[in-house]
Structures are given as C-alpha cells and as structure tokens.
Design goal:
459 residues; alpha+beta; 2 domains; 5-stranded antiparallel beta sheet
C-alpha cells in the first residue's frame, strides 16, 4: 500500500471541495484533493444557476474563491452574469464548460495535488482523531494521512466511516428528488421572453414579498433584461395541461437558465425522481434511466409548446445526477430552519447563506419561503465540525443542519463559502498544530475577510 501524507486532505471535488482545496493551499498548506470521478467542480459544471451568492434583496454574500472563479470565467467569455429572475432569487450564471477549465487551472495555480478516480473505502479513526483514509483507484491502494481532513463528499462518507451520527430525509425517510438537468442550444431568447410577456400566468413571477410590482410588470423587466431566464410553474396553465394529459412528468417547475454569453444556450431544470435511496449503485443506475426518459419528454414538450424553442437542439445532459439531499452530518452546532428563516446574524459566523428555504417534494409539491427581510443568515464553524472529532471538518450540502435549514444551505454558493471557511481553518490548524476545536474564530474570520469572504455588513 502506497503511503502519502499532506497537511490538508480534501475528500470530494465538488463546489465545496474545490473551494476548500484552493483556500487551504492559498494559506500555505500542502493540499491534496481526492475525487471519485475524473471531474472536478461537481454541480458547478452542470449548467445549473449558482444560487446563494446573493440574497433575494440582491446583496452579495459570497466572495473569495467564488468571485475568483467567476472572474476567471469572465476573462474567457464564460461569465454570463448575475441575474434577478423576478421571483425570489438572484442567481449567477456561467458557461459550465469554461468553468470546468477554470477550476483545473486554479487548482494547478495553487499547486493542489489531484487524485481523480479515487474512492475512500476505509478510515483509521480513534478517539476523535482521523489518522488516515484508505483509498482505492485503478492501480493502487493508498493510505493517505494528513494533519487535517475535510469531508466534501456531499454524502458525508468520511464522517460516516468515522461513526459520526447523521440524519437523512423527512420523517418518512423520503429525500428531495434527484434531477437530471439538460442543455438546449439555438434558443431564440426574445421570442421566448415575448411569450412570457404575453402569458405571465405561466411563470413564477411577483413572488418576492419585497416587490409591489405585478407579474406583467416583472415580465416586462425580464423582457427588457434580455436573458432567457424563465421559471415556468407546474400550476400554470401551460404545464398543468401537459401534466394532466401525461405529455409531461408531474413537477413543480420547468426552469430555463442561460449559460452562454450570446444567450442562445440554456440549461433546463425540471426532471425529478423522489426516492429514499440516492447512494447505492443500483438505485442510481435505475434513476439515470428513469430521468433520461423525463429529459426526452421535456425536450419534446419544450420544442412543441414554447415559442423561441422550435429550433432548439438537445445539447447534452449534466455530467452527473443532481442530488439535492442525502445525509446531514451532526456537528458541534446544529443550524435550524428557524435561524435561517429569521436571518440570524452571529459574531462567530464564518460563512453566509441567503438562498430561500427550498424543499422540493414529489409531483407538484414544493415548499418555498423567503428569509426575513430578503436577507442572509450566518453559519458558525460548529456546523462544519463533525461531532466528537478533532482533526476533521466538513463542508457542502452535508453540513450540520435540520432539513429546513439544509434546503437553503445546500446550494452551490453556500457550499463554496463553507468550503473556503474550512479550507482556511484547516491550513491554520495544520500550521499551528492545533485541533479543529481550538482554532481562534477571530483569527479565522480575519483571514477569511482579508481573502475576500463576506462575513458582515449585509441585511
């Protein structure tokens, strides 16, 4: 078995893992990132909107690594923009193919060691200390030791192998639905926007409690903006007829998200599959087949019924399934839905969230609620320290939170913010030879702010 040692080991190469690895390396730690696939970036490469970087009120609440990646995309004509969709959210849109390239170049720039096609299969853990993880890949068995580990696996795999408790699903064990997003090109954006302007009843508009404008007025603003950013509602007449006739699967939305600077390419988020299992290979394989059928039906529906899409061409699916919810790891602090809804601020916050409460259910069921004053809430470091551990952090959608809080914190902007926080904290712990529990929050917050993180001064 090959032996490797690094100051900081990041397990999982999604949005949180990439931000964690860059931040650890930027702060002087020899850093390795372990990814089970060949792709670094996770859902950042899906074409989905990057939620959680701005509040409903429009304030930026995520900076640092996220902003650095966006700027690098802009330099390559891959930053589409930050768009308010006239509902409850302000999103960031990028070209996912450009983002894929940018992430690799940034990891190389900060000298992060990449271990693709590598799966953690075991741990050497005792009395709160994770000494090493066992990794298998095509040709090697590796024992990877580190001063500090960061679990960014999405499912909390390392934490679970260490015996950390977790929660999963609702009271019946059901999870938010999986999805397969797909991309269309050759959209005619102004024809699509004219259709929305003529028939605003089909779209989610005028939902923001801070806006007094009508759906028609907001549809006009979307038209004037010129981006094909649309949220067709499952309760609107267009989708409702198709769902009732069986032409379209039962769902709460069909969302168009522009991801090219010429505005002719969109990623569509509409498919959904509710399950109690989003981790076993058998379940995931069955889900891929079922969701691909929904993609085909949705594509045919769009071309047939939505103006501006008659010449649209199916341009592929995301590189992996979209998993909204799996394990929620129990940490030293447990974030609640009430704290999120109330927009609670904290002096020990190390990241901010601002995406709406957003619990997808089966069929048309979808719980959505805006954070108080269209603002943000603070996430303490304790949400990112798995309970009982001393050299292990976690970040991303498996952080310590109840189901309502998780529905807001699970999005990519917040994942990058928590990733930057623990990457920075891990580098400090490694350098000073201290446990994750002993880090100075004041020092961590100061370092994060110096490196562009947004921790205060927002609604």
């Amino acid at each position: 078995m090959k032996e490797l040692h690094y100051d900081v080991a990041v397990i999982g190469g999604g949005a949180a893992g990439v931000a964690a690895a860059i931040s650890a390396a930027r702060n002087g730690a020899r850093t390795v990132i372990v990814e089970s696939s060949s792709v670094f970036g996770g859902d950042l490469l899906s074409g989905l909107p990057i939620d959680g970087c701005r509040t409903t009120g429009g304030e930026w609440i995520v900076g640092g690594v996220a902003k650095e990646l966006f700027e690098a995309c802009r330099e390559l004509n891959g930053y589409v923009g930050s768009i308010y969709d006239r509902r409850n959210i302000c999103i960031v849109m990028i070209n996912p193919r450009i983002m894929s390239f940018v992430i690799i170049r940034k990891l190389a720039e900060y000298k992060v060691k990449l271990l693709p096609y590598s799966q953690v299969v075991g741990v050497d853990y005792d009395d709160g200390i994770l000494k090493s993880v066992e990794i298998k890949n095509k040709l090697q068995d590796i024992r990877l030791s580190a001063d500090v580990f960061i679990d960014c696996s999405g499912d909390g795999d390392v934490c679970v192998l260490c015996g950390v408790p977790y929660e999963m699903g609702d009271s019946e064990g059901l999870l938010q639905p999986m999805t397969m997003v797909f991309q269309l090109k050759n959209i005619e954006p102004m024809k699509l926007l004219q259709f929305i302007l003529d028939h605003p009843e089909n779209c989610g508009l005028a939902e923001n409690p801070n806006s007094k404008k009508s759906a028609k007025e907001l549809a006009q603003e979307l038209y004037d903006l010129g981006y094909p950013k649309a949220f067709f509602s499952g309760n609107g007449p267009l989708m409702k007829r198709a769902i009732e006739s069986g032409e379209l699967h039962s769902c709460s939305m069909l969302a168009f998200n522009p991801n090219s600077t010429d505005r002719t390419v969109v990623t569509v988020n509409t498919t959904r599959l509710v399950s109690r299992d989003c981790m076993t290979a058998e379940s995931l394989g069955d889900s891929i087949i079922a969701l691909s059928e929904q993609v085909e039906n949705a594509y045919r529906f769009i071309v047939k019924h939505i103006p501006g899409c008659q010449n649209a061409v199916l341009d592929g699916i995301a590189p992996r399934l979209g998993i909204r919810e799996s394990r929620r790891i129990i940490g030293e602090y447990y974030l609640t839905g009430q704290e999120v809804a109330d927009g609670v601020k904290r002096t020990d916050g190390i990241a901010k969230g601002g995406h709406e409460i957003d619990i997808h259910g089966d069929k048309l069921n979808h719980i959505r609620a805006t954070i108080r004053n269209a603002g943000s809430y603070d996430i303490p470091l304790g949400c990112l320290i798995p309970k009982g551990t001393r050299n292990l952090f976690l970040a991303g959608r498996c952080i310590s939170a109840d189901r309502v809080a998780h529905s807001s914190a699970r999005v990519m902007g917040t994942c990058m913010a928590t990733g930057q926080a623990v990457g920075t904290a891990a580098a400090i712990c490694s350098k000073e030879g201290i446990s994750t529990r002993d880090i100075s929050i004041e020092q961590l917050r100061r370092t994060l702010k110096e490196q562009g993180a947004i921790l205060e001064g927002t609604n």
